[in-house]
Structures are given as structure tokens and as C-alpha cells.
Amino acid sequence: MRTLYRSSVTGVAGRREPRRQLAGSGPRTGAGRRFATLGIFLFLGVAIAAGPVAGQQNMADVEITTVELESDLFMLMGRGGNIGLSVGDDGAFMIDDQFAPLTEKILAAVAAVTDKPVRWVLNTHWHGDHTGGNENLGEAGAMIVAHENVYRRMNPAEFAGLVGRSGQAPRAALPVVTFDQGVRFHWNGRHIEVTHIGRAHTDGDAIVHFPRANVFHMGDTFFRGRYPFVDVDSGGGIDGVIAAANFVLERSSEGTRIIPGHGELASPEHLREYRDMLETVRLRVAGLVANGRTEDQVVAAAPTADLDALWGENPERFVRAVYRSLAGS
Q: N or C: which end of the chain has fewer CB within 10 A?
């Protein structure tokens, strides 16, 4: 059924006129040019999230896998952050867009489930493995939405006082709609609720909720089955990552499905195990910090040693991030 709220969105908006129509099968012209101009921005994003996106230089062998959640709601997996996709009469609503060289493959996957164009792209945060396709999609006419801090970190030339990690993106890659606390879309017959979760993976993280489907997209506040990357230099912190997990768990039920930033589709039980691990490591590191240990001494104490077999992707990076979150480094 066609929604009565076809083009309604609540939030702080700015519009850019579409440069050309975005076909469901992908950009028809100029793709090579756009891929090239995004190179520097893409490199910056890759450098930040090196763990989740190792091997990103060669995209030729990447396949986009489509996981059906409902007949009009999907999760796309390729290389980089997992994509959420709502389709319907109003057009496609996409959450994150991976890397620029994958845009045509992603659009082919979109075209397999809808003949409508991509109208909205919502970025869960600013890292290049989630925003690398922005320029291609923005040039094609999609409206890009993100938290205000995502705009600032992708556009530091306009914010001279910005400190920490950032990377200048091409104009077409920047969000044209930003929000502070949250925003609600009424699109494809769904209410899509977006909440800024605070200083978690970064300072611009958004969690997306599809209430009718009982589905969440958590971006990189949730790495299923592995230690997360907490980007302290982008305003992230361990307490915010724990808060993000609790935010979703408090709103979950037995049938809730959760799209993590990286990893397979998850259940509340997977998220609960992840939250418990985060709290355990935080408690251990906090005790060492309270005893005056330095960052290197905390790493040497191996506070995750008994957890590494299960969660052990880059435990040292994780411990250092927890330390810096708590010690204020």
C-alpha cells in the first residue's frame, strides 16, 4: 500500500536539486570519474577502519549478498559496513553504502528487488567503509542524511575548530539533511526512526529502527562476534558503545533482528553477549586505571586474555581504546 506520508521527513533539512535520475540498475554515465574523485576520501575512511575493511584495494571479487528480512526490507553484505534497504512505491531508502567502486554492484542488488531509484541514503557514521558510495549516489540525485557531526567530520574545511579524526569529502558526498537528537521518516508505508546515540563508535552514530518489522540497524556500535573499533579520535568512547547496546536491548523482543555494522544478521542474544563482554572489559580496565596503570601497562596486563579466543580481533587496539575512553587521553 502506498504510504500517505510519501515524502515526509521530520528534521533539519537542506535540499540539493538532483543532477540526474538514479536508475535502479546503477549510474549510467560518469561512474569512472566519480570513483576517481572519491579516492582520497575513501583512503582516509579505510585508514580509520582498517580492521573491518582489510583487503579493500581489490573490489573485483566482491559479491553483494542480499538477506531478505521482509518482502520490502533487506540487508546487503559486501565489503565494508552492512547496508540496510527499504523498498516500495516511494523509492529505495538505503542505510550506508560501503565503498565507491562497489556502487554499481550495490545498485544491481537493489535493482533485483525493486525497479525504483534510491531516493535516500542515511549514513550511520562518517567512516569511509559506510560512506564511500555517497558521491556516486549523491551525484545521481539521492538525498544523503546523517548526524550533524558526520557532516562536520566529512567537511572539516568548513569547521576550522574541528579536532580529532576527519577527512574532506567531495561536495556531492556530503549530507544535505542533518539532525541532532534524531529524525523520523515516513516512507514506503513505514515509520523509520533514527536516533543519535551519543559518543559511541564515533560522536555521530545513528541507530535506525523499523518498528513494524522489529528490525534495528546499529551501524558500527555493534560488531557481531568481535571486539569493536572504538574511534576515540572521532569522539567515540566505550561507555557510549555500551549505551548503544542497552538502547537496542531495552527495545528488543524475542523476534527482534539486528543488522550490525559488521558481521552476520544478529539476535538480541548476540547483542547481549556483546554488551556483557564490553562491560567486563570496561570494568577490568577501569580497575587498572584506578590503580594508576599507564596505557602500556594496561595492555601488558592483558585484561582480555580469557576472552580473546571468542572475540579476539585486534584485542590490543580495543584495550587501548577502552583505556583512552576512561583515562581521558
A: N
The strand pairing partners of 65, in sequence order, are: 77
Residue 325 pLDDT level (bands cut at 50, 70, 90): very high
Q: Are 236 and 201 in contact (CB under 8 A)?
A: yes
Cα–Cα distance, 269 to 52 (Å, whole number): 22
| Residues 90 and 7 sit within 8 Å (Cβ to Cβ) | yes
- pTM equals 0.85
Measure the CA–CA gap between 295 and 293, rounded to whole angstroms: 7
The amino acid sitting at 67 is V
pLDDT digits (tens, 9 = 90+) for 281-308: 999 999 999 999 999 999 999 999 999 9
**C-alpha R_g of the chain:** 19
- Give the chain's domains with CATH numbers: 8-196 (3.60.15.10)
Question: In this predicted structure, what is the pLDDT of residue 57?
Answer: 59
Are 149 and 240 spatial neighbours (Cβ–Cβ below 8 Å)? Answer: no
Distance CA 270, CA 154 (A): 32
Q: Which amino acid is it at 170?
A: P
Q: Packing angle between helix 315-327 and helix 268-290, nearest 10 degrees?
A: 60
Name the maximum alpha-carbon separation found in the chain: 61
Instruction: Return all residues near 113 (Cβ < 8 A) that are at least 6 apart.
Output: 66, 74, 85, 87
Cell digits of residue 14: 537542506
Adjacent-strand bridge partners of 216: 209, 258
SS3 of residue 279 by DSSP: helix
Integer CA distances (angstroms), 149 to 13, 155, 166, 304, 318, in order = 15, 10, 10, 31, 23
Contact between residue 177 and residue 144 where contact means Cβ atoms under 8 Å apart: yes
